């Protein structure tokens, strides 16, 4: 069962054949196994860290963009409200002044 699982992954199959090949090269094959495992673990950790950093940057950037858009929309609505509310007053002032 375990050998079937190993044969699904080429690198594990290679490591398994290297470790079971001969007892004279056992120390060198175990060094190869350790080096391969360390390299694979380091690559996986680096990829995971890079993906997490990219996701965090995208989420923070999206949050900032949404906040800026909301603030701009609120300011636009406030300007429109001020203009609409003050429009009759401006007309009365123009009528009083006569301009």
Task: Give the helix/strand layout.
Elements: H1 2-7, H2 10-19, H3 26-97
Description of the structure:
The chain is mainly α and 99 residues long. It has a domain at 2-69. It is built from three helices and no strands. The chain has helices at residues 2-7, 10-19, 26-97. The protein is rod-shaped, with a radius of gyration of 35 Å. The mean pLDDT is 79. The chain crosses the membrane at residues 31-62, 68-90. Keywords: Membrane, Transmembrane, Transmembrane helix.
Q: Mind summarizing the main beta sheet?
A: none
Structural class: mainly alpha
| Tally of contiguous helical segments | 3
User: Spans with pLDDT under 50 lasting ≥5 residues?
Assistant: none
Computed Rg: 35 Å
Keywords: Membrane, Transmembrane, Transmembrane helix
Protein name: ABC transmembrane type-1 domain-containing protein
Transmembrane segments: 31-62, 68-90
